[in-house]
Amino acid sequence: KQEVTQIPAALSVPEGENLVLNCSFTDSAIYNLQWFRQDPGKGLTSLLLIQSSQREQTSGRLNASLDKSSGRSTLYIAASQPGDSATYLCAVKGYNFNKFYFGSGTKLNVKP
Amino acid sequence: DAGITQSPRYKITETGRQVTLMCHQTWSHSYMFWYRQDLGHGLRLIYYSAAADITDKGEVPDGYVVSRSKTENFPLTLESATRSQTSVYFCASSLTGGVTTEAFFGQGTRLTVV
């Protein structure tokens, strides 16, 4: 069974810092990995999707990398802003029945 | 409105009652999913569906029933609600099961069983 772990569980940084969120998974047989953002009391918003054949994807200040062989992904946020405060979740889609397996998330607080 | 919508957004029900959570998507996505989100457990898959009339169990299906008579709807029924089913429920959809397809989520239904 796929296990997805996110470290750290919580992170507090001053505005303007560059930061890295980590995601690791136990089974490298994945179709893709997706990063989501969740605001309190809200649903999940898709940020980036990395296919299994890709190494990274970029969207604005966000860059996600994937090292499938080592079972790791990172989400890099450049020049963090208070509006980036949210919980960030990673999810992997496995070969088996196209299920998504989620990590428990990293709760980010960017202080003004 | 286009997208994926869940109803109701909030629901309080009593132990033993049947309750149905609704999910509707306008994209004609093939795949639909139900997750529950709990502190300490993250998001766990309850049921999913690859197409109309095709459903399968996820990690935590006990106590839940789903149906998918139409592509756009995927209701989740708690046959006899228990306090342990108090949770936030998310519906999601994806176009296909392929490599490039993203999952899109509804806003969630916060269910409280008293």
Topology:
The complex is a heterodimer of chains A (112) and B (114).
Chain A: E1 4-7, E2 10-14, E3 19-25, E4 30-38, E5 44-51, E6 56-59, E7 62-67, E8 72-77, E9 86-94, E10 100-102, E11 106-111
Parallel strand pairs in A: 2-11
Antiparallel strand pairs in A: 1-3, 3-8, 4-5, 4-9, 6-7, 7-8, 9-10, 9-11
Chain B: E1 4-7, E2 10-13, E3 19-25, E4 31-38, E5 42-51, E6 54-57, E7 64-66, E8 76-78, E9 87-94, E10 104-105, E11 109-113
Parallel strand pairs in B: 2-11
Antiparallel strand pairs in B: 1-3, 3-8, 4-5, 4-9, 5-6, 7-8, 9-10, 9-11
Given as residue ranges, the uncertain stretches of chain B (5+ residues, pLDDT < 50) are none
**What is the tally of beta strands of chain B?**
11
Number of helices of chain A: 0
For the largest interface in this structure, which chains are involved and how many residues does each contribute?
A-B, 26 and 28 residues
Global structural class of chain A: mainly beta
Largest beta sheet of chain A, briefly?
6 strands, mixed
Spell out the helices and strands of chain B N to C: EEEEEEEEEEE
Describe this structure in words.
The complex is a heterodimer of chains A (112) and B (114). By secondary structure, chain A is an all-beta fold. Helices cover 0% and strands 60% of the residues of chain A. Chain A has no helices and eleven strands. Chain A has strands at 4-7, 10-14, 19-25, 30-38, 44-51, 56-59, 62-67, 72-77, 86-94, 100-102, 106-111. In chain A, strands 2, 4, 5, 9, 10 and 11 form a six-stranded mixed sheet that branches. The radius of gyration of chain A is 13 Å and the shape is globular. In chain B, strand 4 and strand 5 form a beta hairpin. In chain B, the strands form two sheets. In chain B, strands 2, 4, 5, 6, 9, 10 and 11 form a seven-stranded mixed sheet that branches. In chain B, strands 1-3-8-7 form a four-stranded antiparallel sheet, with no helix packed on it. Chain B is mainly beta and 114 residues long. The termini of chain B are far apart. The interface between A and B is medium-sized, with 26 and 28 residues.
